[in-house]
Write a structure and sequence with these properties.
It comes from Naegleria lovaniensis (Amoeba). This is Autocrine proliferation repressor A-like. It holds the Pfam family PhoPQ_related. About 30% of the residues lie in helices and about 25% in strands. It is of the alpha/beta class and about 500 residues long. It binds 2-acetamido-2-deoxy-beta-D-glucopyranose (2 copies). The site of one 2-acetamido-2-deoxy-beta-D-glucopyranose has 4 residues, from helix 6. The site of one 2-acetamido-2-deoxy-beta-D-glucopyranose has 5 residues, from strand 2.
């Protein structure tokens, strides 16, 4: 494999020399690689340790909630990761008393937690989003469908024996070290790409939920799932949707990672430094590798754009305007390459944790509509930079009338292109109502600010769209992508102009 890799690099190099002119504008992402199939192969290879046990049953007046303990897979050797060699997970499965057996779709939410805490593995301090277990149960009851929540993706805290610092690692610190280690030796270190076990454990947990439900309920089988998750679990959601045929709908939350290399480059170019939230990727040396062939190998595995199956399923991205990791313009960079049924919702006045927002109730309404095949609004949007600023256009194409259309914007007069709640505050976004320029069509000019930058998006709100037994649920909310004007970048990193490790 190692030899193959260098052969490929050599071949690429000679191609590059021969066609230097073409390659200057060519798309490096199209290069062939051994790694495009790695996730699919890994996820669908059998697991020797897979098993699950029912460990708890709780009943409420409207549902029964079963907690399973699933042993999913073996990861890196015990000599490297100790007890984290074998992963396990808690899953709560909420089955409403009046389950609608005609509908075979369920809801599956992937979250985190810690192995040193009691089941179900997540409490207010470690669970993202907070309150997901109560939400799952209420969603199950309201939609008469089964809702499962998967905890402990990834298994943490943990440490790597090969880590010279012997740090106790969680979350990004696990992934940052792992990605760097993979890029040091891509042939031998595939399993260090932590997304592999995260996705496979999620796949195996779907197997367990499916099996458990089939045992529990006569004449009923869960066939398909809407899968959601926040942040790294949102990334897991995207990749699971890419490789698992049971997933027919995804809700990746606060994770605009389509076109991975491009969004990471833009994160730096926006501020001429990395955002602090990238700390684990910067200090582990991952970001130093951005322009190497090994980074292409990594993105061959983790970039959701490489998974064509995603074109065929429903996608609803929920993103935060003030995200500490992801600036507002990132999702727009590769969005035209995301195909098929796709929806975006940017949440204004919210950071990465979406605290104090309505994202869960709005998601419940969205699930209800999708689950019951209620036609939801269809819309198109586009944007254009002109000398005065930014033009945003939105059009509804299936005659569904929003109750409100508004422009949300925020300005950072001091520059750089920094709209994190930690920089501009949590209430920096203001809304202006827009009126139609033509039937079902809106256009707005966002003027460039006198100094600094303005970020903006247009939101469509559909009140009273979904009701359950006469009770109105939260509105549906969709938005355009968000953009930053003026369209000038303070930095432009490249192979000849590498990023520093500076963070702001
Ligand atoms: C769940 O399973 C793992 C091993 O597979 C075990 O270590 C752990 O104690 C179990 N937890 C509970 C609460 O059953
Ligand atoms: C990667 O290789 C470099 C250079 O040999 C080394 O300093 C670094 O510790 C390695 N990183 C990992 C995570 O293996």
């Amino acid at each position: 494999m190692r030899v193959a890799r260098s052969l490929i690099s050599l071949l690429l190099l000679s191609v590059a020399v021969l066609t230097a002119g073409c390659l200057a504008t060519g798309n490096h992402e199209e290069s062939t690689s051994d790694f495009r199939q790695a996730l699919h192969q890994y996820v669908h290879s059998p697991s020797d340790v897979f098993s699950y046990r029912l460990i708890e049953t709780t009943t409420t007046s409207q549902a029964t909630i079963y907690t399973l303990n699933i042993t999913s897979l073996t990861w890196l050797p015990e000599s490297e990761v100790g007890s984290k060699h074998i992963w396990y997970h808690f899953v709560t499965v909420a089955i409403p008393n009046d389950l609608n057996k005609v509908n075979s779709q369920g809801f599956f939410f992937i979250t985190n937690g810690r192995t040193d805490q009691p089941a179900p593995g997540a409490d207010a301090t470690t669970s993202s989003p907070v309150g997901i277990d109560a939400f799952s149960t209420s969603l199950a009851v309201n939609t008469k469908s089964i809702a499962a929540t998967l905890y402990l993706i990834p298994n943490q805290p943990m440490s790597y024996n090969s880590d010279p610092e012997h740090l106790i690692r969680e979350e990004d610190a696990i992934i940052g070290f792992g990605w760097r280690r993979f890029m040091n030796n891509t042939a031998d270190n595939l399993l260090y790409v932590t997304q592999l076990p995260m996705v496979k454990a999620s796949k195996l947990s779907l197997d367990a939920v499916q099996h458990f439900v089939q045992q529990k309920i006569d004449n009923y089988r869960l066939e398909t799932f809407m899968v959601g998750g926040n942040s790294k679990r949102g990334w897991t959601t995207l990749l699971l949707g890419g490789v698992d045929n049971r997933v027919n709908s995804i809700v990746p939350v606060v994770i605009p990672t389509f076109g991975t290399k491009r969004f990471i480059k833009r994160s730096y170019d926006n501020m001429c430094a990395w955002p602090w939230a990238y700390y684990d990727y910067v200090t582990s040396g991952v970001t130093d590798q951005l322009f190497t062939p090994e980074f292409e190998d990594l993105t061959d595995i983790v970039d959701p754009l490489h998974y064509d199956r995603l074109d065929t399923i429903q996608k609803y991205q929920i993103l935060a305007m003030g995200d500490e990791f992801f600036s507002p313009d990132l999702n727009s960079l590769s969005y035209r390459r995301v195909k098929g049924d796709k929806y975006v919702r940017y949440v204004p006045n919210a950071g990465h944790f979406l605290q104090d927002t309505d994202f869960l109730p709005v998601l419940q309404s969205y699930y209800y509509a999708r689950h019951n095949q209620i036609e939801i609004p269809k819309y198109q949007f586009s944007h254009e930079f002109i000398p005065e600023g930014l033009l945003i256009n939105v059009k509804i194409t299936n005659g569904k009338r929003p109750t409100r259309v508004q422009l949300w914007s925020a300005t950072n007069l001091n520059g750089p292109r920094d709209f994190r709640t930690t920089t501009i505050g949590v209430n920096a976004w203001t809304a202006t109502e827009l009126s139609e320029i033509e039937a079902f069509e809106w256009q707005v000019l966002v003027r460039n600010p006198v100094s600094g930058y303005t970020a903006a998006m247009v939101e469509l709100v559909f009140e009273n769209y979904v009701s359950v037994e006469g009770v109105q649920m939260a509105p549906l909310k969709f938005t355009t992508n968000s953009y930053i004007t003026p369209n000038t970048l303070p930095c432009d990193i490249s192979p000849d102009n590498l990023p520093t490790r500076q963070m702001v």
